[in-house]
Design a protein that fits this description.
The protein has 12 helices and 22 strands.
């Protein structure tokens, strides 16, 4: 269960660590390193709870709150986002703290009614609205579609503390709460995976929100998201990463993702990989039937080019390849080159399917892709190698 952790003299983490979570959003997103559900209590002349936790961890939240205040003393319950991993303990807190005023956006109120019914009069806030707690102030910034329509940030100017809910988070369970206490390579890997699989479709909105925060002149010395670690040592590191990811600024990296039936498409993938590396760019290879799709998408976030291969089956692609293309059509990565390749027997078609779906995902598609009939010949392998080198040159340009 753990204990409440102080962010400063009057602000405390009262969330929960879920060491055993391996999937999120149903089974849509893998979480190899678990996750946390972060909730924060601010003690002042008035007290405020910022977000709750996933319902199975409500007891953790309640015990931490009770270690700091008498629950009936809570004045405000701020709901930055109504998704159940953050609002799920709303009924528990409402019953425990009946005098607490619910604070949310208009869309947040609609979501809370939809999930939990009515029976309360919320304080609806919008960008620029504030609540005084005494020595400290809560300032609100609407953040619609980051990543739900109801989302907002809460900012405490006296502490230069930003509580942005799902923004700047990561699915990672750790024994320590702060960035300067943990393995930052692991944290940044999970932050990239989180952004790639959840926030990538909203890159233009992320860019605009970062510009808005900059225009507001907010001093940010600590970022306390609702998943993962709290950024107090290097908050600028995650802000700079978001700015880069939002603009689609990849690095000289290519991802080759494929599946195969009788190793023909696999041989093509290997030759393409060799050509990319010979061309002087880093390349990563993923066989989709034995790879975690969310990890592949995290690699694509940083890549400049994505080469996807499949043999033809029923004039289409393998079922193991289709989910990645489905995800890319929804996530719409920015500023990416794409190419299809694959083998076939008596009839082709997979390459064209891949190209069409990459175009639908707004990739700049390199046409034509490469196909090989039956088993790739030495000449086919050389064509793949040379195409890999050509793609490498385009990446470097």
């Amino acid at each position: 269960m753990g204990k409440a952790i102080a962010l400063n003299q009057d602000t405390f983490w009262v969330g929960a660590v879920d060491w055993n979570a391996r999937y999120f959003h149903g089974a849509v997103l893998s979480t190899h390193r678990g996750t946390t559900y972060n909730s924060y209590l601010l003690r002042d002349q008035k007290t405020a709870l910022i977000d709750t936790v996933y319902p199975p961890f409500a007891d953790d939240l309640v015990q931490k709150i009770k270690s700091l205040i008498r629950p009936e003393e809570l004045d405000y319950l701020v709901i930055n986002h109504v998704e159940i991993d953050h609002s799920g303990s709303f009924p528990v807190i409402r019953e425990l703290c009946p005098r607490a005023r619910v604070v949310c956006t208009q869309r947040g109120y609609e979501g809370l009614q939809g999930y939990f019914g009515g029976g309360f009069e919320p304080l609806i806030v919008k960008t620029g609205d504030t609540i005084s707690l005494g020595r400290r102030t809560l300032q609100f910034i609407e953040a619609p579609m980051l990543h739900w329509p109801d989302s907002m940030f809460t900012y405490v100017p006296e502490d230069s503390l930003l509580l942005p809910n799902d923004a700047f988070g990561q699915h990672i369970a750790t024994a320590s709460r702060f960035d300067d206490e943990v393995d930052m390579a692991e944290v940044m890997q999970e932050a990239a995976k989180y952004y790639a699989n959840i926030l990538m479709p909203f890159g233009s909105l992320v860019s605009r929100k970062l510009a808005e925060i900059n225009k507001l002149g907010l001093s940010i010395k600590m970022i306390a998201p609702s998943h993962g670690i709290i950024w107090r040592g290097q908050p600028e590191r995650i802000v700079e990463a978001y700015a880069r990811w939002a603009e689609g600024l990849g690095r000289p990296l290519a991802v080759v993702a494929y599946d195969t039936m009788w190793q023909s498409t696999e041989r093509m993938a290997m030759a393409l990989l060799d050509g990319l590396e010979a061309g002087g760019v880093e390349a990563k290879l993923y066989k989709l039937s034995s790879s975690d799709r969310n990890d592949v998408i995290a690699a694509i976030l940083e890549a400049r080019a994505v080469l996807i291969g499949s043999p033809t089956i029923n004039n289409d692609i393998l079922p193991t390849v289709s989910p990645l293309l489905d995800d890319l059509m929804g996530l719409r990565p920015r500023n990416k080159l794409g190419m299809g390749f694959g083998s076939y027997g008596w009839g082709g078609g997979a390459q064209q399917v891949i190209e069409e779906r990459l175009k639908a995902a707004k990739f700049e598609v390199i046409e034509p892709g490469i196909t090989a009939k039956w088993r790739p010949t030495a000449e086919d392998a050389q064509r793949c190698f040379e195409r890999g080198r050509e793609v490498a040159e385009r990446i470097k340009q």
